[in-house]
Design goal:
By secondary structure, the protein is of the alpha/beta class. Helices cover about 30% and strands about 10% of the residues. The protein is built from 11 helices and 7 strands.
């Protein structure tokens, strides 16, 4: 009996980052990382995960998988990248980010292997390249104006037209940190695609999975009805729409309010926190200062306030009639429901 195919997942989390996306993934439940690794789902290929956060191997034993992939001895493998990619070309001495030492020609070099060189070597050989978290997708905090590293996202480094061996562009799943199930679901999709059980992953223009980032925060927000009625919070702790407090939800593509954070619970605006746009390529520069009312919100909330006031009044009138029972529901010696006997 032929052995099931084995897909390796190489997790390169040596970019500029906080490992928050790795930590977030441990909380995924739909599916969980355990479900993926243990092959709970039918039709899923066998998986071997080489990930610093959970791997029992250390040192050279752990690094051997990355060198095998570099030599073309792992096929297929999915390259997961966490953290932004610094521009080592502007570093006159030392390096910004690295993982492991060089091992060339059978010997051992004491010089570190930079993250950017790992990416250059492994990406063209990978069946798929998955950038996880906003730092890896678009540069994130480390790529903001004034940074000394020249940091950028994976697509900026490899090129937005890059195609992996499996034919997919770079797959970007942003978030700061990432929503756990968004990442685990994307990994599951890519594994099914690798097994020939799914079509090419559908991505939007910013290389995000369409089914996860096709709607705005506002469209899935518990507070959206208040915006429609022009009813805005003027302080934190209110259940009303928090656009005037700095929320960018009406324009940010993210499913967190609808999906929740852990087990369907939470999501920034759902629990009273403003959306700061962390899933967007312009984050953080274009969304700062975070606690100020977004520029476009002044006009839109003013218009919503005028229209919403009229809507609230009309709905109040309608609600007052709906809160009353029909007049025929009372005791008496006459039937007043409008029923007419047929015989």
């Amino acid at each position: 009996m032929a052995e099931e195919p084995l897909v390796h997942i190489l997790w390169l989390n040596s970019g500029l980052g906080c490992d928050g996306d790795s930590v977030a993934l441990t909380a995924a439940s739909q599916p969980s990382i355990e479900d993926i690794v243990l092959g709970t789902f039918p039709g899923l290929p066998r998986v071997a995960v080489h990930w610093l956060l959970i791997d029992y191997q250390v040192g050279d034993e752990f690094m051997q998988w990355f060198w095998k992939a570099d030599r073309g001895e792992l096929d297929p493998f999915v390259l997961v990248v966490e953290g932004s990619i610094p521009n080592e070309e502007i570093k006159r001495e030392g390096y910004w980010a690295a993982m492991g030492n060089r091992v060339e020609g059978g010997g051992r070099d004491t010089q570190p292997m930079t993250t950017s060189e790992w990416l250059e070597r492994l990406a063209p050989k990978a069946w798929a390249v998955l950038a996880v978290g906003t730092c890896a997708t678009y540069g994130g905090i480390h790529a903001m104006a004034g940074n000394p590293t020249g940091a950028m996202g994976v697509a900026d480094f490899l090129g937005w037209d890059f195609r992996a061996k499996g034919g997919n562009p770079i797959v970007c799943v942003p978030g700061c940190p990432i929503q756990p199930d968004n990442l685990s679901e994307t990994i599951l999709y890519l594994l099914y695609q690798a097994a020939g059980q799914a079509p090419p992953i559908p991505l939007d223009e910013e290389l995000r999975p369409q089914w996860l980032f096709g709607a705005t925060v506002h469209e899935g927000c518990d507070r959206a009805g208040y915006y429609e009625q022009g009813d805005f919070a003027d302080a934190y702790g209110s259940p009303k729409c928090i656009v005037k407090l700095g929320c960018w939800g009406p324009v940010v593509k993210c499913n967190v309010p609808k999906r929740g954070w852990l087990g369907g619970v939470g999501g920034c605006p759902n629990v009273g926190g403003i959306c700061i746009g962390c899933t967007m390529p312009g984050f953080p520069d274009k969304f700062m200062p975070f606690m100020d009312e977004p520029p476009g919100a002044k006009l839109s909330t003013a218009a919503s306030g005028l229209l919403g006031g009229a809507i609230r009044a009309l709905r109040g009138f309608t609600a007052s009639t709906l809160d009353q029972e029909p007049k025929w529901r009372r005791r008496g010696d006459k039937l007043t429901t409008g029923y007419r006997p047929q015989w």
